Amino acid sequence: MKPMRLHHVGIIMTTMDKAEAFMEQFGLEKDYMEYVEAYHAYCLFTKYTEKESPVELIIPTEGVLTQYRDGKGGLHHIAFEVDDVEKAKNEFEDKGLEMLEKTAVPGAGGIIVNFLRPRYGYGVLVEFVQSVK
Fold first, then answer.
1. Please, where are the H alpha helices in 62-105?
2. pLDDT 10s digits, 66-91
3. What count of Cα atoms within 13 Å lies in the side-chain half-sphere of residue 37?
4. Left if phi > 0, otherwise alpha if psi is -120 to 50, otherwise beta: which for 108?
C-alpha cells in the first residue's frame, strides 16, 4: 500500500471561535464542515487547490479529543489518501501493527477513515482516508 497523496493535516481546536480565529489569521477559508459522530467532533475542512492539501480543524464536543494535550488542542494527525482503507488496515495488521478502529468509520465529506496507532507511526498519528463519493 502506497499513499496516493497527503489528504489533510488535522488540528484540534478547543472551540469554534478559536478555529475561526485560526482561519482568519492564516487566510484560510471554510470549504465544508460536518459532525463526525464516531469522534464526537465537528470537522471543518478548509478550501484548497490541486496543489494544496486542506487543513482539518477538529472541534470536539465531548470525549477523549477534548483532553488532547491536556485540553489545549494542537496538531493531531496527518492523513494520507489511499484507494482502499480496509486493504491498508489488513497490510498493517499482517505486520503485527494495530489500527485504531476494527473497521473504517465514516468521516466528513464522503470519506471513510482509520488510524494507525501512533506507536507504529514513530510517534505520529497517521490517518488513512478513502473517498466513497
1. 85-94
2. 999 999 999 999 999 999 999 999 99
3. 2
4. beta
pTM for the predicted model, two decimal places:
0.92
Question: Rounded CA gap, 98 and 81, in Å?
Answer: 19
Cα distance between the two ends of the chain? 21
**Distance from C-alpha of 77 to C-alpha of 94, rounded to nearest angstrom:** 23
Task: Check residue 99 and report its DSSP letter.
Answer: B
Helices (H) and strands (E) in the chain, counts: 2, 8
Task: For strands 105-106 and 30-36, give the pairing.
Answer: unpaired
